[in-house]
Write the structure tokens for this entry.
Amino acid sequence: MPQTVLITGTGRPYALGFNLVRRYLENGDRVFASIRRPSEALEALQKEYPDQLHILTMDIASTASVNVAAEEAARWTDHIDLIINNATTASADTMKELPDFDLDLIAPAVNVGAVRPIRVVKAFLPLLKKSEIGALVVNISSEAGSIGRCYRTFYLDYGTEKAALNMLTMTLRNYFRNDPNLNIICLHPGWMRTNPGNTEAPLDPYEHAETLRLLFETKRHDKDGPVFITYSGEAYPW
Ligand SMILES: NC(=O)c1ccc[n+]([C@@H]2O[C@H](COP(=O)([O-])OP(=O)(O)OC[C@H]3O[C@@H](n4cnc5c(N)ncnc54)[C@H](OP(=O)(O)O)[C@@H]3O)[C@@H](O)[C@H]2O)c1
């Protein structure tokens, strides 16, 4: 049965969000793809899949923008079966260490990378609650958010936002524990070639998006399995 999916951060054709959109469309699903600025690539996809793809403008840094997008989605659908919180950010100082890092950049990054995905869940919760197949929320995290495995001396913003996203995921997991119709996980997706300059990463985002799509279906009703997982579905240390 086709499902209705919301994916954030979908405007870059070489990145994960856009390729997840492609995979869900190819699977026959209906997709709300969110962007904060126009994307020619997504508009081209919209022409290919006019009945399945709905582009939502949503700057997740803005509560008002998220709420307006949720209202717009509710005019097009009465339910959402899957939210993939993919959008993220990192500051210009992300590769710097303490002496050179402007610490004031951490809080805005945590806001976009951790708090705002939960704002998206909150705003779209009425639609998630109406899923007939059981709703799933996937927060795209990173191994960089693992405190137990932290080895870096940089990523002060990015690591902190992903660790915070993991904590928020677990807290919501507890909140939804007795709801058989709603599940939430966070994922380390692996190292992907999502940047045109990066040829070293082992994973192609289009190929990998299908691996993730299939993985997510195994997690929809898995209330007892690991919450922070790798793309193979194994537990990753918090
Ligand atoms: N790439 C990897 O190897 C890797 C490894 C581990 C984890 N991850 C995680 O996987 C996910 C996808 O990675 P990626 O490399 O494909 O990401 P990316 O290329 O950095 O794309 C991030 C997306 O988030 C959007 N975004 C940023 N701030 C936003 C805001 N305020 N409102 C709405 N959208 C916003 C960007 O939109 P604009 O295009 O408008 O800037 C962009 O589309 C991310 O969560 C990342 O942390 C990636």
